[in-house]
């Protein structure tokens, strides 16, 4: 009996799908399969097996080192692996002990840009069959399962802004190595400030066609592609879907887009605000609604003209506002992302809501009887871990329903309305998270200690770095 069967880690439907995957690998002449899991940053990591080894992976899992979950964004291992860390007692991971990737057969795809290569998303388990508590995909699944038990389904739709640039120099000299290494030298693909112009779209269309074709073949529900306002900035819009699918799709989309771009001489970055002249920040707008689990009816639809959302929708909105400052760590997990929160920029700077207003944090769309009624949270950056972003929205919304939270009145002047300001730095956001009793209860103190430790390591390195601004400001005058 293999590890997966021993601990019943795949149900009957998944076991059937696993057999179907094995048949497809044979019929499509797949040579290799990439087994990947999403790490703490939403970055895919894993191993590649020959096709003949895939059946064994569905039986015994695939071992990987647990230290992969202890790294910050520079890939440095920042949580001690050979000794216990105060407040984070996880003996199963000491010594960089192995954990096991368990493939989710429902996620299997053949990669369009590498047609002899399969891909499958995995979950993480210890050797005793327990879930690894720092696996963000499983954390999100647990949150959605609790929502399911209450009779609800969570529907989300993605609008993702990012930058596309042409590579001039890959910067692969020996002197370019490091943690992190030197990024590629790039040039623009359009000069910006011609928002939604067909002319700029046509300039990008040859590459967009390749990207679009692959994203469609992956089944990610791509709806449209747009030229954004800033230089080399674009936006992809996806159809709404239930549960985990939007998070899984976002992880795969980001990885696929970067791989396809690289193969064609382009560089795609989901960094919020690249250090480029006249750049515009990129956001990740998360459209969300709560639906009845059985009927799939939208529970946010208002039955009157007095409020844009139903009673439960207004309470969900109140929960998002109540915990907005603490939740920012999960929607904006990088130091760079906080440079987007600035007034009069079509990005939020405070915790407010409004009806169809792009300056607020929570933009409410819809009205009486409108089946497309939803909340658009405009706070996120495209580098966010999708599982933590979605999970944070659910727990905040449920808390709003539980406590019948009142979101107050709509803000028509978003950058002047008195309201709690969003955190200005990642450090401030972490302080807000540390004071959140709700997140301690829903995500667990151990997970918060773990995640905060990783984020603080990035802050510490950043604070020790002498920036160009500092050198220019002080080197001559003092």
Can you offer a commentary on this structure?
The protein is of the alpha+beta class. The chain is 33% helix and 21% strand. Strands 7, 8, 9, 10, 11, 12, 13, 14, 15 and 16 form a ten-stranded mixed sheet that branches. The protein starts with a helix and ends with a helix.
Cα separation of the termini: 72 Å
> What are the secondary-structure elements, in order, as H or E?
HHEEHEEEEHEEHEEEHEEHHEEEHHHHH
Fraction in helix = 25-40%
Strand content: 15-25%
Overall pLDDT confidence: 94
Overall shape: globular
The major β-sheet equals: 10 strands, mixed
Cα-atom radius of gyration: 23 Å
**Which residues sit in consecutive blocks of at least 5 with pLDDT less than 50?**
none
Kindly state the number of beta strands.
16
Structure class: alpha+beta
Number of helices: 13
Secondary structure elements and pairings:
Blueprint: H1 3-6, H2 12-27, E1 32-38, E2 44-50, H3 54-60, E3 62-65, E4 98-103, E5 109-110, E6 117-125, H4 136-149, E7 152-169, E8 185-188, H5 198-217, E9 222-227, E10 233-238, E11 241-242, H6 245-263, E12 266-269, E13 284-292, H7 311-322, H8 324-331, E14 353-355, E15 362-365, E16 374-380, H9 386-402, H10 426-434, H11 437-442, H12 445-464, H13 468-474
Parallel strand pairs: 1-6, 14-15
Antiparallel strand pairs: 1-2, 3-4, 4-6, 5-6, 7-8, 7-10, 7-11, 7-12, 7-13, 9-10, 13-16, 15-16
Helix pairs in contact: 4-9, 5-6, 7-9, 8-9, 8-10, 10-12
């Amino acid at each position: 009996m293999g590890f997966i069967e021993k601990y019943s880690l795949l149900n009957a439907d998944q076991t059937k799908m696993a057999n179907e995957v094995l048949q497809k690998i044979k019929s499509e002449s797949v040579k290799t399969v990439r087994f990947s899991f999403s790490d703490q940053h939403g970055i895919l990591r894993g191993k590649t097996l020959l096709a003949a080894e895939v059946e064994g992976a569905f039986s015994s899992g695939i071992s990987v080192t647990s230290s992969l979950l202890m790294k910050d964004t520079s890939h440095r291992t920042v949580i001690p692996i050979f000794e216990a860390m105060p407040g984070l007692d996880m003996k199963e991971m000491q010594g960089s002990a192995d954990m096991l990737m368990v493939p989710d057969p429902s996620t299997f795809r053949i990669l369009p840009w590498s047609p002899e290569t399969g891909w499958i998303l995995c979950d993480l388990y210890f050797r005793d069959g327990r879930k690894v508590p720092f696996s963000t995909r499983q954390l999100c699944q647990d949150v959605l399962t609790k929502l399911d038990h209450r009779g609800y389904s969570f529907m989300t739709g993605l609008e993702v802004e990012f930058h596309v640039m042409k590579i001039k120099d890959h910067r692969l000299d020996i002197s370019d190595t490091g943690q992190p290494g030197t990024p590629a030298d790039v040039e623009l693909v359009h000069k910006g400030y011609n928002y939604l112009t067909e002319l700029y779209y046509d300039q990008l269309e040859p590459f967009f066609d390749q990207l679009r074709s692959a994203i469609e073949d992956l089944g990610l529900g791509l709806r449209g592609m747009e030229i954004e306002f800033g230089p080399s900035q674009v936006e992809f819009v996806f159809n709404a879907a239930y549960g985990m699918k939007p998070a899984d799709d976002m992880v795969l989309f980001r990885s696929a887009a970067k791989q396809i771009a690289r193969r064609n001489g382009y560089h795609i970055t989901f960094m919020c605000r690249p250090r480029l002249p006249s750049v515009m920040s990129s956001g990740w707008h998360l459209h969300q609604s709560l639906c009845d689990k059985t009927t799939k009816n939208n529970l946010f639809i208002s039955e009157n003209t007095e409020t844009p959302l139903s009673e439960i929708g207004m309470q969900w909105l109140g929960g998002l506002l109540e915990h907005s400052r603490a939740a920012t760590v999960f929607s904006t997990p990088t130091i760079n992302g906080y440079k987007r929160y600035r007034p009069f920029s079509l990005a939020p700077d405070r915790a407010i809501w409004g009806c169809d207003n792009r300056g607020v944090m929570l933009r409410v769309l819809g009205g009486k009887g409108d089946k497309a009624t939803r909340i658009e949270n405009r706070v996120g950056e495209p580098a966010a871990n999708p599982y933590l972003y979605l999970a944070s929205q659910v727990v905040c919304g449920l808390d709003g329903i539980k406590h019948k939270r009142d979101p107050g009145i709509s803000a028509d002047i978003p950058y002047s309305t008195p309201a709690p300001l969003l955190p200005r730095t990642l450090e401030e956001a972490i302080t807000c998270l540390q004071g959140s009793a709700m997140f301690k209860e829903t995500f667990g103190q151990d997970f918060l200690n773990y995640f905060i430790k990783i984020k603080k390591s990035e802050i510490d390195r950043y604070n020790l770095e002498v920036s160009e601004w500092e050198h220019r400001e002080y080197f001559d005058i003092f």
